Amino acid sequence: MTEADAARAVRVERDGPVTTVVLSRPAARNAVDGPTARQLAEAFREFEADEGAAVAVLWGEGGTFCAGADLKAVGTGRGNRVEPEGDGPMGPTRLRLTKPVIAAVAGHAVAGGLELALWCDLRVVEEDAVFGVFCRRWGVPLIDGGTVRLPRLIGESRAMDLILTGRPVPAAEAHAIGLANRLVPAGRARAAAEELAREIAGFPQLCLRHDRLSVREQHGLAEPEALANELRHGTVPLAAGETLAGAARFASGAGRHGSFTG
Could you tell me the CATH number of the domain that includes residue 115? Predict the structure, then answer.
């Protein structure tokens, strides 16, 4: 695959504040090789830098979210980059964005594809989707955050079950253990994720982003330090006037009686 081909493997579509990053290698079940990983990372850097973009959706075209790294590319010029610095082998998995990303999961999200989904903030999952550490059978390690993010998300015991056995995890189980946030009918993941993204984009963004960052940064901090970090983040929208503006809207009657628009 040439770099020009790789550029076509990742497509970015924008609709107001929602950016959808489309992984488009359906013939390879959206497996990610080195050039595709670079394109994914670049797409999310552009999203982060775009002042008009509030929320991103990551979706795999053709009925599969992502089958992981492209093992056919290993040992070739298209192999995934495996280095301690810079981007992860799957692309964006080491990026720490200030804005939320939603995974729209259809079909399989396995091996490195599972790790891409774990990197996202939320996962909207079709009812017939399947997760799993399928790379277990090939001796391919989890090096895009899987051994870190999965236990944080679902607990060490459940994560160890998935990691050691490599078994398939159907969507219903994924939802029950907290791996999937929302289940939707087959064929609806992208639309549902984009609808959720628009809802999130409608809220006051400074406060939302700093609350999100406080959650992200509390791992490894003792409770007093985590609480101090929470306050540091919370003072930003207070100082910027966003909270005062929100209080004024509340006083005028906006946002009450089940209306959650920003």
Answer: 3.90.226.10
